Amino acid sequence: MSYSDVLSLLLPLELGGDQAVDLAVEARQLDQVHVSAASLEAEMFPHLSDAFFTRWEKMLGIIPATDARRGERVAEVLYRLRAQGRLDRQYFIDIAATVGFAISLVECRPAMAGSMRCGDEVIGQVARWVWQVTIDGGFAQFARAGLVAAGEPLGWYRDDRHLKAIFEDLKPADSHVMFV
Predict the structure, then answer these.
(1) Nearest-angstrom CA–CA distance, 130 and 132
(2) Is the model's pTM score more than 0.85?
(3) Is 92 exposed, middle or buried (0-12, 13-18, 19+ CB in 10 A)?
(4) Which of 107, 112, 101, 102 is closest to 88 using CA atoms?
(5) pLDDT, tens digit, for every residue of 9-38?
(6) 138 CB-side CA count, 13 A
(7) 118: Cβ–Cβ under 8 A, 6 or more apart, which residues?
(8) Quick check: 69 and 42 in contact, CB under 8 A?
(9) Cα–Cα distances in Å, from 114 out to 6, 15, 110, 176?
């Protein structure tokens, strides 16, 4: 059924005059909208995108090489989208490892029947969204061949502000991260 037929069914009676011409104009407009919506649906997916592909790259902060092929550019966009994040513990442990910290992450659980034993610490309901992050290996760092340049210190204490900022940026909004 065409849009012209559908529009004519919406009118309760024949109005005469230019009604058929008006319906044809409106039906053409709806046909164009239908085609435009179908192409916009394809633009939602980077590997199918054509007209808006450069917007995908801009949104993700990708500056493609001048000689990059389309397949390489699509692969980069898909990688960046998939690397945006998850909410499981291992993802945050891996993120910390990429910036040079070995951590252990514990999700605090409130006291609940069936999950507690005699002698366990009782934590209130507020602990449901609390993560406890322990940086393993301490903050002392020592120089290793290939990792430091001439003139840099042979030993230093690491600053965990960068790691805290990453966690604050990536964690769920209702969660609290405690570094111990």
Answers:
(1) 7
(2) no
(3) buried
(4) 107
(5) 888 777 677 888 888 888 899 989 988 888
(6) 6
(7) none
(8) no
(9) 61, 74, 12, 25
